[in-house]
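Bumping with the actual sequence this time:
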Amino acid sequence: MHMMVSRPEQWVKPMAAAGANQYTFHIESTTNPGNLIKEIRESGMKVGLAIKPGTTVEELAPWANQIDMALVMTVEPGFGGQKFMEDMMPKVSWLRSQFPSLDIEVDGGVGPDTVHKCAEVKAAEIKNECL
């Protein structure tokens, strides 16, 4: 479950109770990622951490060894039909070089003309309903 909410802490227990096996939240939406990561893990779910285009990958780095998946948004979340932001690919490359075993995903604006850019930087999963 990828939560694009302002207070992701309030949804951990309900999502676990509903049977979710992974909970992904945006680092920008919480003041204490460490506590949220711990709570998600204690609820029996895997942890995903997402960053928006304007957030540096270095802000995710301190948490990379505590999460199961990093999600690099390739559009601004919440608005459909946006153009794929190719300049997000260095974030994926950097994460892959620093954390080779981390599951790294991209999401937004991916289609037949841009999917190869994601594959080149070794994104583990490419999310888009259009593919």
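The tokens above came from a reply further down the thread. Strands lie at 2-3, 22-26, 46-51, 69-73, 103-107, 125-127.
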